[in-house]
Structure of Short-subunit dehydrogenase:
Amino acid sequence: MSKSILVTGGTKGIGRAIIERFAAEGFDIFTCARNEADLASLKTFLEEKYPKIEVLTIQADLSKKEDVTRFVNEIKAAAIPDVLVNNTGVFLPGTIHNEPEGNFELMMQTNLYSAYYLTRGFVNEMIEKKSGHIFTMGSVAGLTAYPNGGTYAVSKWAMLGMTKCLREELKPYQIKVTSILAGATYTSSWEASDLPEERFMKAEDVAESVWAAYNLSPQSVVEEIVMRPQLGDI
């Protein structure tokens, strides 16, 4: 029976790179995004390149709890994923004391609450099976405070705390939990930057690290992966 991976926000950047890495290993793919056209394009690409895998794409805005619930239910009707990657996120620059009204709610709902609700949606089945691997896509902003980081940094600090709690809770059930704390990675959000592409990490390198962490024996777990550009933070 094929193994499967669920990656939220899987049409671009790190999410897509992770999907392509696991698809190459024969994993069935479950993912979501807000843009239906991007999802259709991804599905076509994967099915043409990896015709033996199953691909399920669902339009959803995970900043909305009702969309998270619907997404979980639709995936459960197909399977319980072996790997869950909480990748959905949004970055709006600003400072806590004067960022625009609503930034806090949007970033916390997208970056943290979606991962909380999604994990709760699948973890009891993982506990029953005594298997599974949960990855959360954090950030080096969850380790170090940066100017103009605002609520984004708050959400990533909270994500790291939630991931640490999950690790302790799920130890007895043979479920692995790993936090990915990535620095500046070249994705669409950085394309308008004046910095050269080689100054950034590659999304494929993050994906390779996720695959390596997953591919260990049952006796070992990578709890945290901290990745930065070779020349340091941007």
